[in-house]
Design brief:
Blueprint (H helix, E strand, L loop, with lengths): L3 E5 L5 H11 L6 H9 L3 E8 L2 E11 L2 E9 L8 H15 L4 E7 L3 H9 L3 E10 L4 E9 L1
Parallel strand pairs: 4-5
Antiparallel strand pairs: 1-2, 2-3, 3-4, 5-7, 6-7
Helix pairs in contact: 1-2
Length: about 150
């Protein structure tokens, strides 16, 4: 496999990110939402590329001293190659640079791969929202990391 490059999101990335969202999420963010996020001053997004192709992305909103993860997603054909971990490490570093004291995220209770990724990065389960997700129905764990 070629080298994975991580870079900042650009407005021109919005269309590809919306495509990835449609394939990977039961309730995807729209193209318009992705365009807005590219200009959102509270947001930071990182793109993962292989040979110039966008294969995943992750981002957060910085609100006060909390970096709230919005999305971390990798195209299905590129999963299992530690791309999500690379993206998360970049997001953690960016949150520290921007002055966040902690990071939070929401994850489906049945998403063992994601939960294991976050636990491996020292995130702790801080809460549970029953029946938070639809399509399919699932509980939500709130996980946090002190930065």
């Amino acid at each position: 496999m070629s080298e994975i490059k991580i870079r900042d999101m650009l407005k021109i990335d919005a269309e590809r990110l919306a495509e990835i969202n449609k394939k990977c999420f039961s309730v995807p963010w729209s193209l318009e939402s992705m365009k807005k996020e590219s200009k959102n001053k509270l947001a930071s997004y990182k793109i993962a590329e292989i040979d110039g192709e966008i294969v995943g992305y992750g981002g957060f909103w910085l609100i006060m001293d909390e970096a709230e993860i919005t999305n971390v997603v990798v195209s299905e054909e590129y999963r299992g190659k530690k791309i999500s971990k690379l993206l998360m490490n970049e997001l953690i570093e960016k949150a520290r640079e921007r002055g966040a004291s902690y990071m939070s995220l929401e994850v489906r209770s049945k998403n063992e791969i994601a939960k294991n990724l976050y636990k491996g990065l020292d995130f702790k389960v801080d809460g549970l929202r029953k029946n938070y997700y639809n399509n399919p129905k699932d509980d939500c764990y709130i996980m946090t990391l002190k930065l």
